[in-house]
Fold this protein.
Amino acid sequence: MLWTVLGTGLVLLMLVDVFRTLLYPHGSGPVGRAIMRGFWLVSRKLRGRGTLIAAPLAMAAVIGAWAGLAAIGWALLYLPHLPAGFVHGAGVPQRGDFAEALYISLVTLSTVGFGEIVPAHPLLRLVVALQAVTGFGLLTATVTWILQTYPALNRRRALAHQLNLFREAAGPAGVLSLDARHAAGLLESMAGNVASVSIDLLAFHETYYFREVDQRGSLPATVTYAQELASQAQRSENAELQFAGRMLHAALDALAEVLRGKFGHSGTTSSDVFDSYELHHRHLRRRRRDKD
């Protein structure tokens, strides 16, 4: 009974974690969240390229944790029924230890199904079939997770590149150097992109832990420039440009609220939150400023 209860608990923990990470819109599973945050904290103490691969390694660790919970959980369910509850093929030794139960669990979870050890009891046959379905679902879920994560990262990088291009093209005058109507359109588009990044951080919390190789694609290093543009627009005498500035300012405030509430950045103002965001991601501009 103890092994059965423990095994059921591990399987349920895996299912809850996968559900909250992949299907719950604004949530993250306890196991995945702990692993991602643990790798993040370790990476903050590192230097060089080690900080860049921490997040991909953390995602691999989360997937490994899901597979491990499933394999061990189902193995504990099989353990009390070994060897009597299973039919062994010719020449296959009958063993009743945990290693045998784990072997059956891994073969079933991976849907390989060698067939040399099969369940005899009808209830066990149903349990094995259920694990095979779970294994297929877990494989599909991990692929889906990866495919969802990288488009969100690309949207964040695209926003950072857009801000850098705007800074280079507009010069020190910013939006005031452009035609008011044209500048308003650009800022409204930028506000929509900032809102998309906020939604991505809520839905795909793991994207927060990715650091960028190129600072031009780093939102933590460029988001403060968006605040400057919003302030310039609100000081304009053109009503349309003022409205676009307020839109961008509101989108940035919403982004700061996500960073404050979901990722623990401190600060009473959005500027303080963005400074903390940049500092935690340790980008070159902030490191040079600290050295100076």
Summary: The two ends are 64 Å apart (CA to CA).
